[in-house]
Amino acid sequence: MSAPTINLSFHEQGSSVSASKLNGGLFINNEFVASKSGETIDVINPSTEEKIGSVSAANEKDVDVAVEAAQKAYDTVWGLNASGTVRCNLLIKLAEAFEANADELAAIESADNGKAFAIAKGFDVAEAAACLRYYGGWADKIHGKTIEVNNSKLAYTRHEPIGVVGQIIPWNFPLLMLAWKLGPALACGNCIVIKTAEQTPLSALKVASLIKDIFPPGVVNIITGYGAVAGAAIASHMNIEKVAFTGSTLVGRSIMKAAAQSNLKKVTLELGGKSPNIIFDDADLEEAVKWSAFGLFFNHGQCCCAGSRIFVQASIYDKFMEAFQKRVSEIKVGDPFKEDTFQGPQVSKVQYDRVMAYIKSGKEEGATVSMGGEKHGSKGYYIQPTIFTDVKEGTRIRNEEIFGPVVVVIKFDDEKDLIRQANDTVYGLAAAVFSRDISRAIDTAHKLHAGTVWVNCYNQLHSNVPFGGFKQSGIGRELGEYALANYTNVKAVHVNINQPAP
Fold it and tell me: Which numeric CATH code is attached to 276-462?
């Protein structure tokens, strides 16, 4: 049984590629293979609602094979057998391969996910390469310390790789999340079985072809499949010692439960958010409006850290709303391959229906549709940029993560009550504060229950700065030195020098 092949053609502007041919198989032990069952998943272009092709759908037996390949690689060519210098060089080679194939990777991402080609190339591919290069720099700097106990003993610690790790990535940033997961895990010496989102598998398959030419067989295994089957198999696998998941809080709970009920594997989770964005009366209004629009509508609102609750001080509320609506009205929604497109379609029919259901709920709950609220165009999963006002506390659109181009704008007077409202959420991923008074901004930032707080900006992510959430937004941190702790075991070694036995 042969693996499926996918032929893509592109019509993007400013690109050096017009087509791409991908192997749609499971990437195991540096080979593309069909799934054991022969089952496949159809891949749909969200801009046209047409089928792009099919990829293999992994099941539990395929995960077993991938884990076996990863374990063999860990025991022979990776793990403690590959020096930090070797890991560094290979990660940097992969970063360079991302950059050399930037146009093709971006075009695949646009066709598969729906994001604008210019953004996919300028942000997703560029930041993914930067992340891999950053962790390449860490690979030979992961070490423990010596601990002074007494003159009769030498004690020291080692930060050793965990072994075979499982990783599950989402559909909103397929390439970037792939890099966020691969970078620290490989830098620390682990071998990987990583599952793509079933909606957006294609860019990872292109990356797999790059990995094949750089890394030894079995070090990185990339599988496609459904979360309820392949993802569940990773979470519960007895020979996977750690699982990292990015996605919804609901699925995160099931991942954690499966990990606990199997071999009590280590877990890191990067989950949902309902992030507050606070605009004080002394903010630079023009900049606050621009950043607020970017903070929600970037990536079509499909960001876990999106600033989906905007709190505006009453004295500037009317001015803000006038300027904000004007800014949002200028957002270009349409074909991802057109130069001026900012917002493409939602990733799938399921996600489109989910967002439209939230919009309907907001209307039924009495909120005012200040702008948008309808389908955009007649083809593709496009939704108009939508602004709700007069949103009561306790309503679904105010409390629940929508994950689409829908924002609620809330007027506030009392600053003390503002903090209560901002923190009135089960999530705690991100927040933002806009104010020219830096003391006010920092004081507010410290009172917000969030893993990231931006001051006078939004959606700024850097490979060397940790990212993760409080409360039900997750466990552990991605990025920066902090992420290395997710992929190492600390071993203490006691060496007796001249202490006699008791």
Answer: 3.40.309.10
CA distances from 271 to 318, 369, 478, 497 (A): 34, 28, 11, 48
Average pLDDT over residues 483-499: 97
Which entry of 88, 304, 305, 478 is annotated as an active-site residue? 304
Rounded-to-integer distance, Cα 347 and Cα 32, Å: 26
* Cα dist from 277 to 232, 329, 337, 451, 461, whole Å: 35, 20, 31, 14, 16
CA atoms of 309 and 311, how far apart (whole Å): 6
Q: What is the C-alpha to C-alpha distance for residues 149 and 156, in angstroms, rounded to an integer?
A: 10
What pLDDT is recorded for position 149?
A: 93
Residues 324, 326, 327, 333, CA torsion sign: positive
- Count the residues in the chain: 502
SS3 content of the chain, % helix, strand, coil (to 5): 40, 25, 35
List 312's β-bridge partners, or say none: 279, 411
Sheet holding 153-161, edge to edge: 146-150, 153-161, 488-496
Per domain, the residue ranges of the chain are: 51-271+476-489, 276-462
Which tens digits make up the pLDDT trace of 29-85?
A: 999 999 999 999 999 999 999 999 999 999 999 999 999 999 999 999 999 999 999
Catalytic residue among 104, 241, 270, 401: 270
457 has catalytic annotation: no
Average pLDDT of span 418-438: 98
Query: Is 51-271+476-489's fold the same as 276-462's?
Result: no
Q: Rounded to a whole number, what is the largest CA-CA distance in the chain?
A: 83
Task: Read off the tokens for 261.
Answer: 């009920």
Contact 36, 125 (CB under 8 A): no
Neighbours of 269 (CB within 10 A): 24
- The CATH architecture one would assign to domain 51-271+476-489 is 3-Layer(aba) Sandwich (3.40)
**pLDDT tens digits, one per residue of 267-298:** 999 999 999 999 999 999 999 999 999 999 99
Q: Is 270 a catalytic residue?
A: yes
Contact 491, 157 (CB under 8 A): yes
Average pLDDT over residues 437-461: 98
